[in-house]
Write a structure and sequence with these properties.
The chain is of the alpha/beta class and 250 residues long. It has a single domain, classed as Aldolase class I (TIM Barrel, Alpha-Beta Barrel). Helix content is 39%, strand content 15%. Strands 1-2-3-4-5-6-7-8 form an 8-stranded parallel barrel, surrounded by 5 helices. α9 links the parallel β6 and β7. α2 runs parallel beside α11, α6 packs across α8 and α8 packs parallel to α9. The radius of gyration is 17 Å and the shape is globular.
């Protein structure tokens, strides 16, 4: 059964200090407390802020998540963070397979699939990212690339679990560029077909988020596209007014 509300998640990437909890986050909470929104909202700050953000948001108006996790539960992995550590800090979700992780750290579909299993093991909702580069789109390979990433990155364990897919065209992330609504619709339809191909009926319920230069000006139109079940928001999620406007657009 498909979710009845949109899922709007902010990815802070390597941004955010304690001051933002009493600034942007406090402003978001005040607005949502005064005018509850009919969406499921989340913020994924750097790991250093997860525990403090969870405590600042006490009341559950916004969920808190991580931006990545290791496959292992613990061990000699300097700088690594396990899914269990994220959950212990109060996170309820985690972004996996973001294009920046795939490109900068060479993460493969197989590794992303393993991380999905780790997230589920710890009780976290995985948000699994896929998307094509500009060269792949210009070569007419966008659909095939996204389909291949989905088939390789999902896990059999996802059936019946709380999870989401996020389509983020690499060329649209942080550039101010976005695909046309028709292009978004094409990829989201292809993504849904690949999810069902991989998981059967278990691939029908999970929302497919759109990500890549989502902002207050384009959010309403994007969120109205068929099979767009929410948004994964980058830079705009750092600004309370912008993130709230996207939430309200849903």
């Amino acid at each position: 059964m498909k979710q009845s509300v949109k899922l709007i998640v902010g990815n802070w990437k390597m941004n955010g200090l304690a001051a933002d909890l009493t600034g942007a986050v406090a402003e978001m909470l005040a607005d949502l407390s005064a005018r509850p929104a009919s969406v499921r909202a989340g913020l994924c700050p750097p790991a250093t802020l997860i525990d403090r953000m969870v405590r600042a948001i006490e009341g559950g108006l916004i969920e808190v998540g991580g931006q990545d996790c290791r496959v292992e539960t613990k061990g000699a992995f300097t700088g690594g963070v396990s899914a269990e550590m994220l959950a212990d800090a109060g996170a309820t979700m985690v972004i996996l397979g973001h294009s920046e992780r795939r490109q900068e750290f060479g993460e493969s579909d197989a590794l992303v699939s393993e991380k999905v299993g780790a997230a589920l093991r710890a009780g976290l909702m995985p948000i699994i990212c896929v998307g094509e580069t500009l060269a792949q789109r210009e070569a007419g390979e966008a659909v095939s690339v996204v389909r291949s990433q989905i088939l390789g990155s999902l896990s059999d364990q996802l059936a019946g679990q709380d999870w989401a897919l996020a389509y983020e065209p690499v060329w649209a992330i942080g550039t101010g560029l976005t695909p046309t609504l028709e292009q978004i619709a094409e990829i989201h339809a292809a993504a849904r077909a690949a999810m069902v191909e991989r998981l059967g009926e278990g691939g029908r319920a999970a929302p497919i988020l759109y990500g890549g230069s989502v902002n207050p000006a384009n959010a309403r139109d994007i969120l109205a596209v068929a099979e767009v079940g929410g948004a994964l928001v980058g830079g705009a999620s750092l600004k309370a007014a912008d993130f709230l406007a996207i939430i309200r657009a849903a």
